[in-house]
Amino acid sequence: MTPLLFLAIILRIHLSLWKTVVASLSNQLLQQILDDVRPLIAQGRVADYIPALSTVAPDYLGIAVCTLDGQLWQAGDADERFSIQSISKVLSLALAQTRYQESEIWQRVGKDPSGQPFNSLVQLELEKGKPRNPFINAGALVICDMLETRLTAPRQRMLEVVRSLAQQPDIQYDRQVARSEFEHSARNAAIAWLMKAFGNFDNDVATVLQTYFHYCSLSMSCTELARCFAFLANQGRDLSGELAIITPRQTKHINALMMTSGMYDGAGEFAWRVGLPAKSGVGGGIVAIVPGEMSIAVWSPALDASGNSLAGVAALEMLAEKLNRSLF
Ligand SMILES: NC(=O)CC[C@H](N)C(=O)O
Question: Which residues bind substrate per the record (predicted)?
Answer without folding.
Answer: 86, 137, 181, 188, 212, 264, 282
